[in-house]
Amino acid sequence: ETGVTQTPRHLVMGMTNKKSLKCEQHLGHNAMYWYKQSAKKPLELMFVYSLEERVENNSVPSRFSPECPNSSHLFLHLHTLQPEDSALYLCASSQEWGTGGNEQFFGPGTRLTVL
Amino acid sequence: GQNIDQPTEMTATEGAIVQINCTYQTSGFNGLFWYQQHAGEAPTFLSYNVLDGLEEKGRFSSFLSRSKGYSYLLLKELQMKDSASYLCAVRDSNYQLIWGAGTKLIIKP
User: What is the pLDDT of residues A19-36, one digit of tens each?
Assistant: First the structure.
C-alpha cells in the first residue's frame, strides 16, 4: 500500500464551510507534518506532530486546526477559510522528529480551492 | 531571516548534464536535502548532505560546501522523465526544514 495517503485529492469549499483533510501513513513513522504549497513559493510548514504530540505550530491562523489521534493518522480541520488559503496541502511523515538525516515521505496532497 | 535561493527555471537537452544550484542562509545547519517533484505529484527524496563533499547516487549527485552555504544537484544523462521541479531544503538548528521555492527543470529532445 502507498506509504502516505491523503483524502480528498481535490476540495472546493465556500468561506463558510467546515471540512477536514485526512492523512494516513503506513510506514510506522513517529512524526507527521502538514505543509502548505502555493504556486512558485516555498513549502510552508504548518504543524508537526511527534508521537501524537504537537511540537511545532508556525503561526498558523486558527481557522486551521490539526488533530493527531494516533501516530498513523493526521487531520487538518478547516473552517471559515479565505480565498488566499487556496493551495496544495501536503502531508508528510518521517521516522523521527528532530534528528538530522530523516527524510520526509510525502502524500500526494489535497488541492484546495476556497471560493 | 532564513533564506534558500535557487533558480526559478532551467532548460537542458536530453542526454546532457545540468547543475542546479542552491545557496542558503539559515540559523544553524543540520543537513541539506534535495527533493524531486513532478507536476501534480508529491515531492520525493533524492539526496541528503550533512558533510562537505559530493554524494553520488546513480545519475544524480549532490554537493555541499557548508562554509559557502552552497549546494548543487548534478543530473547526468538527462532523460525526458527528469522534467520536474527540484526542491532544496535545509534543516536548521531547530530541526525544521527550510525550503527553497524550487527549480523547474525543462528537458528538451
Answer: 999 999 999 999 999 999
User: What does A24-77 look like in DSSP terms, one character per residue?
Assistant: EE-S--SEEEEEEE-TTS--EEEEEEETTEEEEE-S--TTEEEEEEETTEEEEE
Encode B61-99: b = buried (16+ Cβ within 10 Å), e = exposed.
bbbbeeeebebbbebeebeeebbbbbbbbbbbeebbbbb
User: Which residues neighbour A18 within 8 Å (Cβ) at sequence distance 6 or greater?
Assistant: A77, A78, A79
C-alpha distances out from residue B8 to A41, A58, A59, Å: 10, 25, 27
pLDDT, residue A87, reads 96
List chain B residues with CB under 8 Å of A44: 99
Q: What is the pLDDT of residues B40-90, one digit of tens each?
A: 899 999 999 999 999 999 999 999 999 999 999 999 999 999 999 999 999
Q: CA A104, CA B37: separation in Å to the nearest integer?
A: 13
Quick one: average pLDDT of A73-94?
A: 96
Is B99 in contact with A104 (Cβ distance < 8 A)? Answer: no
Q: Are A98 and B95 in contact (CB < 8 Å)? A: yes
- Separation CA B21–CA B43 (nearest Å): 18
